[in-house]
Design a protein that fits this description.
This protein has helices at residues 2-8, 84-100, 113-116, 120-128, 147-158, 193-209, 233-250; strands at 71-80, 105-106, 132-135, 140-143, 165-175, 181-188, 222-229, 258-261, 264-269, 272-278. It is of the alpha+beta class and 283 residues long. Strands 1, 3, 4, 9 and 10 form a 5-stranded antiparallel sheet that branches. Strands 2-7-6-5-8 form a 5-stranded antiparallel sheet. Strand 9 (264-269) and strand 10 form a beta hairpin. It is globular. The N and C termini lie far apart (38 Å).
Length: 283
């Protein structure tokens, strides 16, 4: 994780504001759309493959925000797990893309995808078995005295959620505001988009009451599966389009997507995770 930590800053303090950028507004390269800062949890992977698998990065660590005692990073999101039947097809897609773009890394491990691709089992385990997050709000710092009211209001606004299906059906390439990172993502463009948009609006209302910056005007809900240093957006998008085109000829492009059930919303503040709403299996 050293290379990724170098981009976002060290995680030495629970009360640090861990953000992908010091700028409150993300801009994008021509032809690309802004994305929310990756969640803080990406810097502390839960499914390490073992120290022998990690590469040592020589990138220097630069904190992109000032440390302020008493500040805690807030992230509101929908947890997403990729269904087992979809993992092999997604792994095959990532393998094809990484063969043309070797700078891609798995989101939560500091290993190039093309190395992981040498072992399909390890590729699926390292890249696709982790929990992904669809952001419903910006990752922002809040003060300790705001935590209780933030959690309480989020629960109040989002407690009546119903189960729905989320379709991750479009591969998209995102570039962050300072062009230091590029992400390969799966975007929600149809099923679930209306529901997620309403949830974002609810979170925006709570953020506004706490004087926090609201989410982007035209949100693009997605999960990110791979990243690369620098702005390789245009070249990566061409690779993705070529792989999809070949796959369309060979089989069905729908194989590269997956569908899952919305099961709830969580909020992470510092290193503590709060359940905002949870949909029982019977609903």
């Amino acid at each position: 994780m050293e290379a990724l930590k170098a981009c976002y800053g060290d995680t030495s303090s629970d009360s640090d504001y861990e953000s992908a950028s010091s700028s409150p507004t993300l801009v994008h390269s021509e032809g690309f759309t802004p994305l929310p800062p990756p969640p803080v949890s990406l810097l502390n992977p839960p499914n390490s493959l073992g120290s022998q698998d990690f590469l040592t990065s020589q990138t220097s660590r630069i904190r992109s925000f000032p440390h302020v005692d008493g500040n805690y990073a807030l992230h509101v999101y929908i947890p997403v797990c990729i269904p087992s039947p979809s993992k092999k097809e997604l792994a095959a897609f990532l393998k094809k893309v990484s063969s043309h773009e070797p700078s891609l890394h798995a989101v939560d491990v500091d290993l190039p995808l093309n190395i992981l691709c040498k072992n399909e089992e390890k590729l699926e385990r390292a890249v696709l078995e982790r929990e992904f997050h669809v952001s419903l709000g910006r990752t922002v710092p809040i003060r300790v005295h705001q935590i209780d009211s933030m959690v309480s209001m989020l629960r109040q606004k989002l407690q009546t959620q119903q189960r729905y299906w989320i379709d991750f059906s479009k591969w998209e390439v995102f570039v962050n505001d300072d062009y230091t990172r590029t992400f390969l993502s799966l975007e929600v463009v149809k099923g679930g988009l209306r529901e997620i948009t309403k949830q974002i609006e609810a979170v925006n209302g709570v953020y506004k009451l706490h004087n926090l910056p609201e989410f982007y005007k035209d949100p693009r809900p997605h999960i990110s599966l791979a990243w690369a240093l620098g702005d390789i957006g245009h070249s990566l998008k061409k690779v993705v389009e070529q792989v999809i085109k070949r796959n369309t000829v060979e089989s069905s492009v729908k194989k590269w997507a997956f569908t899952c059930k919305f099961k709830g919303i969580e909020c992470k503040i510092g290193h503590k995770t709060y359940t905002i709403c949870k949909i029982s299996e019977g609903h």
